[in-house]
Amino acid sequence: MSKPRQQLETIKRDGLAEMAAAADLAALDAVRVKYLGRKGAVRAAFDLLPTLPKEERPAIGALANEVNQVLTAALEERKQALEGAARRSGPKLDLTLPGRAPAIGRQHPLTQVTDQIVRIFQRMGFAVADGPDIETEYYNFDALNTPADHPARDIQDTFYIQKDQGVLLRTHTSPVQVHVMEKQQPPVRVVVPGRCYRRDEIDATHHANFQQVEGLYVDRNVSVANLKGDCEFFFKQLLGPQTRVRFRPHFFPFTEPSFEIDLNSPTLRARGKEWLEIAGCGMVNPRVFEYVGYDAEQWTGYAFGMGIERIAMILYGIDDIRLFYENDLRFLRQF
């Protein structure tokens, strides 16, 4: 047997033996470098081929390829065996450990109250309408019969985005009533929940942004009796049958006559309060009907609006509106 052939046979024999004897992956990698690395024994055998006689090169080259393949296959097999042994001897899964329950989110208390309000009005036959937070002066003021010199139109009271173009953040959800009436003829019966924005000083009972819900009912022969009956029914459904509702004359440019609604409920009485102003309402001003093309001789209607935060504060006994917007999980998890 020629010397190159003897060397290759020795490389194969010794390589297989050392791979089989490797006790861990680190030892196996050392064997790989020794025999199959760029400066290993197999690579050195290939480098000697050009120095051999031409008649020996084909046979020795074929043997070198065979040795390389055998050692590579043996290396992979031993590696898999060692990895499997490491997994079997590693840390076990302890099925007796308590599981880690995923954190489950929940609705914000204002969302919960809004849903309660909407469900009651839906039972009363109201549909839900929505509109943009960014409005124009026309929809926010003009079409609601608000005069040009009204204080609410000053930049001290309203957030204007482009004052010269009359673009602003809506100060109430009433503009949606105008959008709805422009798109459909009576009868109309909608409730409009949404966010509003005013330049109020933030304190325990006021905020610069707040949630509001508006209602509009337009049909033939709608009267103050319908307004009072529907509002009383709503508040008793929301706050309990012992709730009392009081209507006081007031002024709003978009309703005539207009009223403020006061509440007296068991929750308020438990906190030592007799009456609390909760909403504004009234019969839709005929001039508002003129803006949307309704015949005020044929149609009448009522509208109302109330703050959702104030209702939530009554329902849950909360005395500071700022708690709703501070994102304190200790507070939010109570609901």
Which class do the helix and strand fractions yield?
alpha+beta
Query: Could you give the order of strands across the largest sheet?
Result: 1-5-6-10-9-8-7
CATH superfamily caption of the largest domain? Bira Bifunctional Protein, Domain 2
The figure for the number of domains is 2
Count of alpha and pi helical runs: 12
Give the DSSP E fraction (strand runs of 2 or more residues): 15-25%
**Main sheet?**
7 strands, mixed
Q: CATH topology of the largest domain, what is it called?
A: BirA Bifunctional Protein, domain 2
Q: What is the N-to-C order of secondary-structure elements (H for helix, E for strand)? A: HHHHHEEHEEHEEHEEHEHEHH
The CATH architecture of the largest domain can be named as: 2-Layer Sandwich
Query: What's the total number of strands?
Result: 10
* Straight-line N-to-C gap: 89 Å
* Helical content band: 40-55%
Note poorly predicted spans: none
State Rg: 41 Å
Globular, elongated, flat, extended or rod-shaped: what is the shape?
elongated
Task: State the main characteristics.
335 residues; 2 domains; seven-stranded mixed beta sheet; three-stranded antiparallel beta sheet
